[in-house]
């Protein structure tokens, strides 16, 4: 055997003639070079392979994969036959097919026959072929009556011993085409011109033979031109193709006689005129009649020429010409102005303005009083609403009249040395005079930072007070004064960036502070009280009004309790889905404590709407008989030695059951013989995506102390609802709160909302305060920008509620906040009655 004896195949399989494949030997001695070449794999199955000395089997093989294994029996079948048959129309032709069994063992084969044209085909019976021998089977094919008809017949043999051993052969069958009258080599049945030896084909069907036709495919390109270029075919309509991908079709290249195979050879195209673009600016866009507006079309453009005319048309029929012009509207109403520009080639483009609003003299008045941080009137401040301005008088009062009904007013105030946040204003409902309140911020400000932010009882806390000059003048005679909380003593007071401090008066002075400059002062105090510390710092200067900063610092007393929760927020309750919430309550005796804590009792009040699952602690026993109140007797605590127990924990698991609750409040109180009680609250939000947005939120205190006021609140809210046009009803939500925040209704149906409000009853709740801060905080992210919150309560928020931060959030979203306040926790009439 020579090199390449077996090649040009995907897989070469070699085995011995043994009937079971075992004990065979293959002799490859005396062979050199790559005699086996396969595209995918060569596999050899023999117990013994004889090779010349120094020759490895891989020296004889060239393939990506070589497999050598013990001998085994290989089944293989091969079909052979004439690959083409021809017969007369409607006749039956018998095709002999040879079946060769390449296996040394006898095998049986079945046959399937298919074709491409659906002719009448016979069947081939199952056949048995001895090992390494050949048998012949026959297939009858009935030819159709149509001359020159062709068909592809596929015959597949399948081994009955191994169904994956198959062989396939394809045979081309044809019906005799018949007479060739003009002897041009094309039978009449295939000759479109059977009597003309010079023509036999009409590719485009135009009645003219291809030999005489100058455009055989009727694609608009001459055959002689197409035949010049490789890739073009004169008998295929390829006019719309772009052979060289230069952006021009083959037909365009033919018409321009450019080379369709060369991207750099392309027709020359004259650019089309680009129309101009109209752009307009109109000022003002609103005002009172008569209103004159300035028209500016200078931003209009024409990229390939110039604009020759500007024509203005108003929706009331007025017209004007020129790049800049004016129109006057004498009557109240809404108008649209359109600008049409024309370029030097006559092309045009138009653009229209937003609506121009012309109002009649309004009936509404906005007013207020500006006072500084010390409550003194701010005189001469400028107040502006749209185009209307005024200044405050000697008492700080101001008023702007003649305003129209509307909910999109912004009120601005300004005065040197002050900063005023803009206030949103809505006018309407025949409330013809509305008060606006500003909180002025001095350009000279003081910021206070506490370290640590949470201080333990009997520890020191450091306050860093930074005075900043954000104004345009140097501040002179800067004075800083502090008021310390009760139960604290001064440790030190110093100026960090220049200046002098007096520890007797708790004051510091600085001769001047440049524009943009800052100066820091540090005060250290020792705290012995258990309640939150409140410090007040005031800064003054000759050029600026005073600024006052209050700083609240939370205190951890000697004996304290804290609550942590997970997860937070919690998914909303659903039927058959447990929303598990885990609390860890920690009772700790501070290292500063003067004595041990004995008789330690922990009382935990679980939130409403949950079901207790488990209570666990290694350091106490709990009475669960008064659930939701858990009373636990805890071990004594001490810090006298390192081995003493100073901190114990209680683990509580609950499941949320009430789908209406939005904020869960868990309260814990710890007491001991030696120390006063300490209380902590943990508030867990129920998650609602911020994508849920409403126009109005009704946030109502429905605790027992509101019993005297609830009917009046309901009446006022229902009266408010009845003023709403039902065709433009806002999406509204009703929330109630006491110690918890609950969802009552969310709807755009004013009847449903009115019924939900009518069902409100005042009952329950703790003594005082209530979760008013939590309820408003929950509502803010779900109220649209510029939306409304209607709020009613008679109780103060919980201690530590950041009311100022909440006000900033309301302002940032432009939310209109209407409150009905009937009392606070300083009035015992605002307390809810508690069961004995």
Structural account:
Strands 46, 48, 50, 51, 53, 54, 55, 56, 57, 58 and 59 form an eleven-stranded mixed β-sheet that branches. A six-stranded mixed β-sheet has the order 36-44-43-38-41-40, with no helix packed on it. Strands 8-15-14-10-12 form a five-stranded mixed β-sheet, with no helix packed on it. The protein folds into seven domains: 6-69, no CATH class; 77-175, Immunoglobulins (Immunoglobulin-like), CATH 2.60.40.10; 281-359, Sandwich (Immunoglobulin-like), CATH 2.60.40; 364-441, Carboxypeptidase-like, regulatory domain (Immunoglobulin-like), CATH 2.60.40.1120; 443-556, Immunoglobulin-like (Sandwich); 559-685, ntegrin, alpha v. Chain A, domain 3 (Immunoglobulin-like); 688-830, von Willebrand factor, type A domain (Rossmann fold). Residues 828-836 have low confidence and may be disordered. The chain is 6% helix and 45% strand. With 836 residues, it is mainly β.
């Amino acid at each position: 055997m020579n090199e390449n004896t077996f090649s040009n195949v995907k897989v070469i399989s070699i085995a011995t003639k043994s009937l079971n494949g075992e004990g065979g030997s293959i002799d490859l001695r005396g062979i050199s070079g790559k005699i086996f070449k396969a595209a995918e794999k060569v596999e050899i199955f023999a117990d013994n392979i004889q090779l010349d000395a120094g020759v490895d089997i891989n020296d004889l093989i060239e393939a990506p994969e070589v497999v050598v294994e013990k001998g085994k029996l290989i089944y293989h079948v091969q079909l052979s036959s004439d690959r083409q048959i021809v017969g007369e129309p409607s006749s039956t032709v018998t095709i002999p097919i040879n079946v060769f069994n390449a296996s040394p063992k006898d095998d049986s084969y079945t046959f399937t026959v298919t074709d491409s044209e659906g002719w009448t085909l016979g069947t081939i019976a199952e056949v048995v072929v001895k090992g390494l021998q050949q048998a012949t089977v026959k297939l009858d094919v009935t030819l159709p009556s149509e001359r020159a008809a062709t068909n592809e017949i596929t015959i597949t043999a399948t081994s009955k011993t191994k169904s994956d051993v198959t062989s396939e052969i394809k045979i081309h069958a044809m019906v005799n085409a018949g007479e060739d009258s003009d002897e041009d080599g094309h039978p009449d049945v295939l000759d479109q011109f059977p009597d003309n030896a010079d023509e036999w084909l009409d590719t485009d069907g135009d009645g003219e033979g291809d030999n005489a036709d100058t455009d055989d495919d009727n694609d608009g390109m001459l055959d002689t031109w197409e035949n010049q270029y490789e890739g073009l075919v004169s008998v295929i309509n390829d006019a719309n193709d772009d052979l060289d991908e230069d952006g021009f079709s083959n037909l365009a290249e033919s018409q321009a006689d450019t080379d369709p195979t060369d991207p750099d050879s392309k027709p020359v195209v004259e650019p089309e005129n680009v129309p101009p673009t109209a752009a307009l600016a109109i000022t003002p866009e609103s005002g009172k009649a008569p209103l004159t507006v300035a028209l500016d079309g200078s931003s209009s453009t024409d990229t390939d020429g110039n604009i020759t005319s500007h024509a203005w048309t108003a929706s009331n029929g007025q017209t004007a010409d020129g790049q800049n012009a004016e129109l006057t509207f004498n009557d109240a109403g809404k108008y649209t102005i359109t600008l049409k520009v024309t370029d030097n080639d006559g092309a045009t483009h138009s653009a229209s303005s937003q609506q121009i609003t012309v109002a009649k003299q309004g009936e509404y008045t906005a007013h207020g009083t500006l006072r500084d941080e010390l409550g003194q009137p701010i005189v001469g401040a400028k107040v502006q609403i749209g185009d209307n301005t005024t200044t405050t008088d000697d008492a700080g009062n101001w008023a702007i009249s003649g305003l129209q009904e509307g909910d999109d007013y912004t009120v601005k105030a300004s005065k040197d040395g002050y900063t005023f946040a803009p206030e949103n204003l809505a006018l309407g409902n025949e409330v013809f005079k509305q008060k606006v309140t500003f909180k002025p911020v001095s350009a000279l400000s003081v910021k206070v930072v506490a370290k640590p932010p949470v201080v333990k009882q009997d520890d020191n806390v450091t306050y860093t007070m930074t005075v900043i000059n954000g104004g345009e003048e140097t501040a002179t005679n800067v004075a800083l004064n502090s008021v310390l909380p009760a139960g604290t003593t001064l440790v030190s007071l110093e100026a960090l960036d220049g200046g002098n401090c007096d520890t007797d008066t708790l004051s510091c002075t600085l001769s001047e502070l440049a524009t943009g400059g800052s100066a820091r002062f540090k005060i250290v105090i020792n705290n012995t009280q258990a309640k939150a510390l409140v410090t007040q710092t005031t800064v003054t200067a000759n050029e600026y009004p005073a600024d006052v900063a209050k700083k609240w610092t939370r205190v951890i007393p000697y004996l304290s309790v804290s609550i942590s929760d997970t997860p937070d927020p919690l998914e909303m309750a659903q039927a058959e889905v447990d929303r598990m919430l885990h609390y860890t309550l920690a009772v700790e005796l501070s290292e500063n404590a003067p004595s041990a804590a004995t008789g330690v009792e922990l009382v935990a009040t679980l939130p409403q709407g949950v079901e207790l699952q488990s209570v666990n602690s290694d350091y106490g026993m709990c009475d669960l008989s008064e659930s939701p109140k858990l009373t636990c007797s805890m071990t004594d605590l001490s810090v006298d030695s390192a081995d003493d127990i100073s901190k114990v924990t209680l683990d509580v698991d609950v499941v949320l059951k009430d789908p209406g609750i939005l904020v869960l409040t868990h309260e814990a109180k710890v007491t001991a013989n030696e120390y006063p009680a300490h209380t902590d609250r943990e508030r867990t939000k129920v998650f609602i995506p911020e994508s849920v947005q409403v126009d109005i939120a009704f946030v109502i205190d429905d605790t027992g102390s509101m019993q005297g006021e609830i009917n009046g609140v309901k009446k006022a809210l229902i009266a408010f609802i009845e003023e709403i046009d039902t065709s433009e009803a806002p999406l509204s939500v009703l929330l109630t709160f006491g110690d918890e925040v609950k969802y009552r209704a969310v709807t755009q149906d004013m009847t449903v909302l009115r019924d939900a409000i009518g069902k409100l009853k005042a009952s329950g709740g703790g003594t005082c305060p209530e979760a008013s801060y939590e309820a408003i905080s929950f509502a803010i992210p779900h109220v649209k920008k510029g939306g409304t919150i209607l709020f009613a309560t008679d109780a103060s928020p919980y201690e530590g509620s950041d009311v100022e931060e909440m006000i900033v959030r309301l302002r940032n979203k432009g939310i209109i906040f209407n409150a009905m306040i009937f009392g606070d926790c300083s009035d015992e009439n605002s307390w809810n009655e508690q069961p004995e």
